[in-house]
Write a structure and sequence with these properties.
The chain is an alpha+beta fold and 597 residues long. The protein has 15 helices and 31 strands. Among the domains are: 193 residues, Sandwich (Immunoglobulin-like); 218 residues, Rossmann fold (3-Layer(aba) Sandwich). 49% of the residues are buried.
Length: 597
């Protein structure tokens, strides 16, 4: 047996800045020989042995596919050979010190191949925005991939704060020049760690803290009373209270950082896990992350409070006041990306919007649901004509498979049912969920019929005809730009710099719409990408959407569903900063999917 020691730097060799080492990781277990934990004083060791069967070599025309009976996980690095791997996720109390991760593996067996291993295709961008790939993509060569890698994070797991240890085991290596495959049949992973010093239990004064401008507070008092009546202890705090230190000492460089420190203090001293931000971007700031030198709006900044060791995650580790910097060549900030609190936003720009959305939340959580409640509306088509599959429809089908027992309404371009008239009619009937997979804009969505370039669009103006009253769905937009809340009237009419006041971006219009629409929406604040084959979403927006719905169960909040999908993404696909940062929840994070009744 050989021994391989993993250092943190080595563990990140296959982490791509944008795309990560994409895989599709299923729940099928590899043969686990043992799973043990030993302890000497405060030093503890966690051990797991994984046994692999012999690889299957499947010839496919002029290439080869490497398959294992036990593994449904494959790297999907564009232009690189597709190789199997397994993700193993261990959780420890937040602040656990991981001293060492080692793997002992069997002697590799070498197999001479007669054809090259198939390479992964390029990912598909939903929009044509020019992204500087030199900053966004780091592609390792096959020699840099060890038998085992890992990364750490600190975040929420089923409501508990944990340190995530995500281990990726590779049973094969591939010498591409000589077409030689090296395989191992057994690997033992040893994790040496120390548990954190036990802290006193924090108070639980408030479950939910609502943060808003002072001018929005009157209509929010009604929401506070409703939440308290239903057992969600709630505190209403104004931005002025935060900026002038009414509750905690003020700390932070700018307004967004002051809000983040307030959230940290509230969580630690009040026991608050949920935070509702009320206000559009001009009313309550959203962090502009310096991702690859590009400004990316994100509320994940407020949710990501801690690293794996329990220390504060400022998103500005180099102290230059450019938050979330992540470049290929230097200038990086250390960013954890796992959510430590649940964040949602009502992007209201006036008191009328606040009043309308508050009434929708109270009504949704108060009234019983009837037969419409068992419906899910799935919207999709041929997102990238000519790419081989109808990406939107494949993603929809995977979501349907993940949620058995529902009535599925499939409005697809291949069935000629994806039309504004059909969408309005079905949404007006009511549904528990709506999932859309395709192209998105600040003012709508659109996808193509099979193998046709022209798109069928459904725009904000079409949504005006929806009249579903309080039969309100939770909507996930697997698309670009639908939650770009800095959208202005000037941009809408092609006059940037003129008419520079907020125009309701598409996802937010679903939530704010009077007389219907949605109760909550998840969408992207910028350009998104996806990677879909015949087996379903492999990465990007579609993968996040699929696992959002896999996170559904009874008595679950919409924010818990989103955090579940983000955790799954990070634990199994490494760090895709773009997707994790750009998808935001426009809605109440404590919203029980199905209502309190």
């Amino acid at each position: 047996m050989k021994r391989y020691t993993l250092e943190k730097a080595g563990a990140l060799l296959i982490v791509l800045f944008l795309i990560g080492a994409f895989s599709v990781t299923c729940a099928n277990a590899i043969n686990i020989k043992n799973n043990a934990e030993t302890s000497v004083n405060n030093q503890k060791t966690w051990t797991q042995t994984v046994i692999f069967s012999s690889p299957k070599i499947a010839e496919k025309e002029d290439t080869i596919a490497i398959e294992f009976d036990e593994i449904d996980s494959y790297t999907n690095i564009p232009g690189q050979p597709i190789l199997p791997y397994k993700s193993i996720v261990a959780t420890f109390p937040l602040g656990t010190k991981i001293n060492d991760v080692t793997c002992i593996f069997s002697e590799p067996e070498k197999i001479q191949l007669n054809k090259p291993i198939k390479s992964a295709p390029q990912v598909n961008w939903y929009c044509s925005k020019n992204i500087p790939s030199d900053n966004l993509i780091i592609t390792p060569d096959e020699e840099s991939i060890p038998w085992c890698t890992y990364h750490l994070g600190g975040g929420l797991d089923n409501g508990e704060h944990v340190t995530f240890l995500s281990i990726h085991v590779f049973p094969v290596k591939y010498d591409q020049d000589n077409e030689i495959l090296a395989c191992i049949d057994e690997i033992t992973i040893n994790v040496d760690y120390e548990l954190p010093i036990e802290k006193p239990a924090s108070k639980s004064d408030y479950s939910l803290v609502i943060i808003s401008p002072l001018k929005f507070q009157l209509p929010l008092i009604k929401l506070v009373a409703h939440k308290n009546r239903n057992g969600v202890l709630t505190k209403l705090v104004s931005l002025s209270d935060i900026y002038f230190g009414k509750y905690f000492p003020v700390k932070g460089y700018d307004r967004a950082e002051k809000i983040k420190y307030f959230i940290k203090n509230s969580h630690e001293q009040w026991g608050s896990d949920y935070f509702l931000l009320v206000g559009g971007i001009n009313r309550l700031p959203m962090r502009n992350s310096w991702l690859g030198g590009l400004g990316l709006l994100t509320d994940m900044y407020y949710a990501d409070l801690y690293f794996a060791d329990g220390s504060f995650c400022s998103w500005d580790s180099n102290g230059n006041h450019k938050y979330g910097e992540n470049y290929r060549d230097g200038g990086e900030d250390l960013v954890d990306l796992y959510a430590d609190v649940y964040i949602g936003r009502l992007a209201c720009n006036n008191k009328l919007e606040v009043t309308s959305v508050v009434n929708k939340i109270i009504k949704y959580e108060s009234i019983p649901h009837d037969d419409w409640w068992d419906s899910i509306i799935l919207l999709g088509g041929d997102t990238f004509p000519g790419a081989g599959v109808y990406e939107g429809e494949v993603t929809n089908e995977c979501i349907a498979d993940a949620l058995p027992g529902f009535n599925y309404v499939k409005l697809w371009t291949s069935k000629n049912t994806f039309t504004p008239e059909n969408i309005n009619r079905e949404v007006s009937k009511g549904a528990r969920f709506v999932e859309y997979s395709g192209h998105g804009y600040q003012f709508g969505m659109g996808t193509s019929p099979p193998n046709e370039q022209e798109r069928i669009n459904y725009l904000t103006l079409d949504l005006l005809s929806v009249s579903n009253s309080y039969k309100l769905p939770v909507v996930f937009f697997d698309a670009c730009l639908t939650a770009k809340i800095d959208y202005t009237l000037g941009q809408a009419f092609g006059l940037p710099g003129i008419l520079n006041f907020q125009f309701p971006v598409y996802a937010w219009y679903w939530v704010k719409k009077f007389g219907g629409g949605a109760i909550a929406a998840i969408g992207a604040t910028d350009v998104a990408f996806t990677s879909v084959n015949k087996d379903g979403p492999q990465a990007g927006a579609g993968y996040l959407s699929l696992h959002f719905f896999k996170g559904y169960s009874k008595c679950v909040t919409v924010a818990e569903m989103l955090v579940y999908s983000q955790n799954y993404y990070l634990n199994n696909l490494w760090k895709d900063y773009l997707t994790i940062e750009q998808f935001v929840l426009l809605g109440d994070p404590t919203l029980m999917v199905g209502g309190n009744s």
